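tool_call: predict_structure(chain=1)
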Amino acid sequence: MIDKLTVREIIGRRDDIWCVDADDTADVAALKLKNYKIRSLGVLKDGKLVGVVGNNDFAREVVARSKVPSKVKVSEIMTTNIRSVTLDTPFVECLELMEQHHIAHLVVFDDNGEYHGMITWHELQTRVVEELKNQLDLLQEYAFGR
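tool_result:
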């Protein structure tokens, strides 16, 4: 059942965790977002997560202010007030956090504080759709047989 799902079960074991260094320039981060086809990146400083940078940060802090991306450090535009969950956080709690804070990404840490990327609204939405399809199949089978 979907209400029993945890972040660990949703994201699985990821081979790639996309991030950028806080000292990189905005153009480097923007290129990574484009190439990886994602909307947000974790920002690391000395191997530790210090923020998140995404499309909105570029629009608000670079484009709207007419700054040159190659002259702006990621640390100058990143969001530092991040919302996080653990690998054992329930699915429903993730939805509630995203709704409460009007965000589409949650940073994921393990019990030791190690960064495991982000869980996205899209991933949660996909799981809801899968679960609804499964329930519909079960109901149809129950009502009409195989």
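agent: DSSP finds six helices and six strands in the chain. Proceeding to next step.
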